[in-house]
Amino acid sequence: MPNSIYHLAYFFDYHAGGCLWPANDAAREKFGSGPVDTDARLGLPEPLLRRIQELDARFPDSLNWDDPGGPSPWTTAEWDRFKKQVDALYEDILVALGPAFKVTHEHDFYPAQNLQCSEIDYDPDQVSLLEQYKQIGVVVDTVILQLQTITIDRYEMSKAAALSGMQVFADRYVLDFQKHHPGKDIADYFSIQIDPDTEPSGTLITFEEFLGPGFDIAADRLRLFSYNPESRILLHPVHEGFVKALLEPPHLIGYPGDPADPEYLYRLTKDLTQILRDYLRVFLHLENLRETDHLVIYQWSDDWSNYFESGQEWWGTFFWTVYDTQRQTIAVIGASATD
Length: 339
What we know:
Elements: E1 6-10, E2 20-22, H1 25-31, H2 46-58, H3 76-97, E3 101-105, E4 117-119, H4 124-136, E5 141-147, H5 154-180, E6 202-205, H6 207-211, E7 215-216, E8 221-222, E9 226-228, E10 233-235, H7 242-247, H8 262-284, E11 295-300, H9 309-312, E12 317-324, E13 329-336
Parallel strand pairs: 1-3
Antiparallel strand pairs: 1-2, 4-5, 5-13, 6-11, 7-8, 9-10, 11-12, 12-13
Helix pairs in contact: 2-3
């Protein structure tokens, strides 16, 4: 084996086909996205692979597929027996892989009440892009959370991330207020609050639904605007989805020119498409918009924080969580604004 230490995360997922997932750049570059249990370069012996297959096949039975948010059909004794087998398998995998691999046991059988996560340290490309967006009037807020523990209930995990992300938005707002209004008490002004009596309600959506009608994945084309050559008017038919939230803020992204000129629409569409692709590449690590099966996306209600009040006036409110099962991160994305 090479000198690089390959970091793998160990946990079972529903119908995943394995339990070992690359968890650092070296492992992802060497083995791909995972699961990688059967990769011959790992050299796991057949008896271990059979045990992995048996537990992987049994794990989906722990979920009530008619009511995923409800109680598990397994008894406490069944969970305890499964946990002992998973723990024993983990110890044997450590021995089989040897010192070239770091394997972290992340199968959380009894999810914690509070999500254990922290905001990432944003890299220079991410920082630069956020600053660029601020300059051109983008109103989308983004926070990326790195998970320290993984729970088997993705809905509850994503809901906890939505609350954590909103708290980050609130903290940022306070810091920005103090920067621009030194000496003033924010208590006398607006601040972002989370309603303790109302929980976010989420709906699982596809990546295509997340983007919304403003982008056609099959045609690989932005469809946020249309042009009426008879009236020479630029139309704005899209009112939902991330593409709308990112690219059509209350004060429109644009540049000098005549909107009545058909060439203006062409140039504007080209520029906005690049802005969209940059966001998806830099924050969600997406190069190919057809390869998104590793993302678990929820769209959330807008009645649990005063963050949404300005957008409820007319422009719109948006809030999503995007769980990256490969990197074990959750992107919290929100937008709510008025003129």
